[in-house]
Core-2/I-branching beta-1,6-N-acetylglucosaminyltransferase family protein
Amino acid sequence: MIEGEEGRKGAKRIQTYEEEVGGAMAMATTAGMSVRNVLWLWWKLLVLVSLTICVLAFLKLQNYSLSDSELSSSTSSISSRSRAVDYTGNPKVAFLFLVRRNLPLDFLWGNFFENADTGNFSIYVHSEPGFVFDESTTRSTFFYNRQLTNSIKVAWGESSMIQAEKLLLGTALDDPANQRFVLLSDSCVPLYNFSFIYSYLMASPRSFVDSFLDKKDVRYNPRMSPYIPMSKWRKGSQVIVPQSEL
Ligand SMILES: *[C@@H]1O[C@H](CO)[C@@H](O)[C@H](O)[C@H]1NC(C)=O
Ligand SMILES: *[C@@H]1O[C@H](CO)[C@@H](O)[C@H](O)[C@H]1NC(C)=O
């Protein structure tokens, strides 16, 4: 009996031991589970943080590219100018005609361009909006389709003239081959042949502005002083030849 009791006790002890071990094992499993849970949580947190950083970085990048494009749009004229300076191909002289309607002296200019190499010059015309240079209005084919598409209504002697000049220059600057710009009116005539003018302008590092002292001029208004003193008052025509670096 005792033996039997002992044996039962032993068995019970073993059972208890087993239970205990099982419990301990179960606890160990639970502990393992919770460690894994914590690790999983950390992992999730890490992924979340990295994702957030990624999104933030992406937004920041977008911001940068936005300000980049804003910058380039605001400095586009400058970059096209530096493109013109960097240009290494055959340079062109851009002839910019600012005219009221048609070109009355187109036949003279036609002869002038006749003796030029077509790769050495370009022509831009700013005339009344809607005016078309074709066989019905023009005697020289050089002026066909050379009118700016964005031309504006110009009033003589008003700031719209400057606006039109800027449109001409802006359009000519789009072609980096244009390295010299000759602004002309409809009453200008070429006094020299093309090759003379081309080599003269290309060889010169200067810009040209037509300006002279007119002793007989009566248009000076004393109210322009002191901004424009009488001694600085000059007369000039529309002709200017700026360098592309200007
Ligand atoms: C252009 O004019 C210059 C100077 O007037 C002259 O020496 C040259 O021979 C002319 N060239 C042509 C192609 O007519
Ligand atoms: C055209 O340009 C080339 C290269 O700049 C020059 O050698 C040639 O004399 C030019 N032609 C005329 C007609 O000016």
Observations:
- Residues 8 and 52 are 63 Å apart (CA to CA).
- The chain has five helices and five strands.
- Helices lie at 2-74, 76-86, 106-114, 159-173, 194-203.
- The first strand starts at residue 92 and ends at 98.
